[in-house]
Amino acid sequence: MKKRETLEKFIEQLKTKKMFSSILVSNDNQDNLNEFANEFARIIFCENLSIENDQCVNCKRFENKSLANLVFLGDGSLAINKSDVIELMHKFSLTTNEVNKFKVYILANAENLKNESGNALLKFIEEPPENTIAILLTKNKSQVLPTIKSRCKLIVLENKNRNDNSQNLIEEILGKDKNTILLSNSELKKMDKSELIGILEEAYSRTIIKKYLNIAEATLQLINDLKFTFQTNLAIDVFLIHVSEVI
Ligand SMILES: [Zn+2]
C-alpha cells in the first residue's frame, strides 16, 4: 500500500475508533519504515488527527520528543531484550495524565524478537492496555515469529522510490521548456513499458490532477495506448507534443 493512502485509512479508523491495536509494517528499507512509523505516531497524538504536522500542542511535543506515551524499541539491528519489553509493559500499564489518551510503541525490528522477548510481547499484543497501539516494523516479514505476525494487521508498504521517481520524472519533463520537452522521448522510449505505465499512473493520481490539469487527459490517453496498443513510441511522441503545446 502507498504510505499516504494507508495513513488516510488509519485516520478514518482512529476517528471511528476502529483502529487496529497492532500493525506490522513491512518494507525493505528501514528509512521508509521509520518515516512511516513516525508520521503515523504523530498523527495518533495530533489533537486534530491531521495528516500534515499542524503544529498543535501534541505535534510540537512530538517534534520535541516529549510525548511520554510514545516509546521506541529496538534499533534496527540488535535483538530486542525481554527486559525492554517488560519495562514497556510496566510503563503502559500505569494510568496516564497525558491529555491524549493513546499509548504508542514503535518496535523497529520485529524480526529480531526472539523467543523470550517475542513471548513477552505476544502477551502484550494479545491483551493490550486500553488505547494502546503497537507499530511493529520489519524489513523481513518472513522472519517475524508467526505467532506475532498472526496477531497484527500486516501492511506491506509500497516502495517510496517509485513514487519519488514518478514525481521527479514527470515534474522534470514538465519543468523543461517547450523544445526540450520533446527531447524527453528517447528517455521514455528506453524505459520498461510496465514501469513507465506505473510511473504515469502514479503521477496521474498524485501530481497531475492537482497541478497540471491540462495534461491529465493526455496522460490517461498515453497510459491506455501503452497498455492496449503496439504503437508505444508514437504514443509517447504524441503525448510529449501535446505537453509541449499546452504547458
Ligand atoms: Zn497536530
Automatic annotation (TrEMBL):
| UniProt record, GO biological process | DNA-templated DNA replication
Instruction: Write down the PANTHER family for this protein, in alphabetical order.
Output: DNA POLYMERASE III SUBUNIT DELTA, REPLICATION FACTOR C / DNA POLYMERASE III GAMMA-TAU SUBUNIT
Pfam families named in the record = DNA_pol3_delta2
Q: Which organism is it from?
A: Mesoplasma tabanidae
- What top-level branch of life does the organism fall under? Bacteria
Protein name listed in UniProt: DNA polymerase III subunit delta
Against Gene3D superfamilies, the record matches this protein to: P-loop containing nucleotide triphosphate hydrolases
